[in-house]
Design brief:
46% of the residues lie in helices and 14% in strands. The chain has 269 residues and is α/β, with parallel strands linked by helices. The chain binds glyceraldehyde-3-phosphate.
């Protein structure tokens, strides 16, 4: 099993694979999955690529206990956070609560939150700020629906979402954000974007970050692709020079498949 090692300085952008479990798995099933993933990956692979799981809130504590107790070199985070810190917000979870569970990351603005919970660009921007305030790394999700894609407006649409979410932040702060390009038409559909599609938009996002925050900042921000990522398509997608990893949904629930995805990422740089 891969164990925690001393900090290492990485040159360039270290590939990041984040498994978003969405509303799947009990806390007991979560433990089993993390154990299998940890046993499946070797230490050099976990050094070459950063591996993160994003369980439902109900399983975070169990994942934390396992990861810290067994010194497993796998990170974890939350799937959402509130724009508030505490109070009468039934069902919400705060950044402080996630931080207290040792979360490193939090997904913000996932298309399922935007669509099912009416999260606007303003709400997403507020959540990015709240995550940063609590020293959580936001994984900012952007991406177009099928109509926008068919109209050929996917690049301006997604870069505008990035603009809105990062409005008012300074370059040093933006350097600590992860962006995930997830075309909505490719999420959970089996309809994966081509490597060229992924690179086109990830490259455009990086160019936009360079315009707004400077090339040094744009150069360090990790930009992920998400949408029907599987072991068989990871290498092709990560071959794009601006694609630094993947936000994986369904395939992250299968230990063997997720291990293979992480291995591809480790071999990608
Ligand atoms: O957060 C993950 C994305 O929504 C991708 O999900 P998927 O890999 O099941 O298409």
């Amino acid at each position: 099993m891969a164990r925690t090692k001393s900090a290492k300085v990485y040159e360039g952008r270290r590939p990041l694979i984040a498994g978003n479990w969405k509303m799947n798995l009990t806390h007991l099933e979560a433990i089993g999955l993390v154990q299998k993933v940890a046993f499946g990956l070797k230490e050099p692979e976990l050094e070459a690529a950063e591996v993160v799981v994003v369980p439902p809130f109900t399983a975070i504590r169990s994942v934390q206990t396992l990861v810290q107790g067994d010194k497993i070199e796998i990170g974890f985070g939350g799937q959402d956070l509130s724009t508030a810190d505490s109070g009468a917000y039934t069902g919400e979870v705060s950044g402080a609560q996630l931080k207290a569970l040792a979360c490193t990351y939090v997904v913000v603005g996932h298309s399922e939150r935007r669509a099912m919970h009416a999260e606007t660009d303003e709400v997403v921007a507020a959540k990015v700020r709240k995550a940063l305030e609590h020293e959580l790394v936001p994984i900012l999700c952007v991406g177009e629906g099928l109509e926008v894609r068919k109209a050929g407006e996917h690049v301006p649409y997604t870069t505008a979402q990035v603009d809105a979410a990062l409005e008012g932040l300074d370059a040093a702060t933006v350097a600590g954000v992860v962006v995930a390009y997830e075309p909505v038409w490719a999420i959970g559909t089996g309809e994966v974007a081509t490597p060229e599609d992924a690179q086109e938009v990830c490259g455009a996002i990086r160019s936009r970050l360079a315009e707004r925050f400077g090339p040094e900042t744009a150069d360090v921000v990790r930009i992920l692709y998400g949408g029907s990522v599987k072991a068989g398509n990871t290498a092709g997608i990560l071959a794009g020079p601006d694609v630094d990893g993947a936000l994986v949904g369904g395939a992250s629930l299968d230990a063997d498949e997720f291990v293979s995805i992480c291995r591809s990422a480790a071999e990608s740089r």
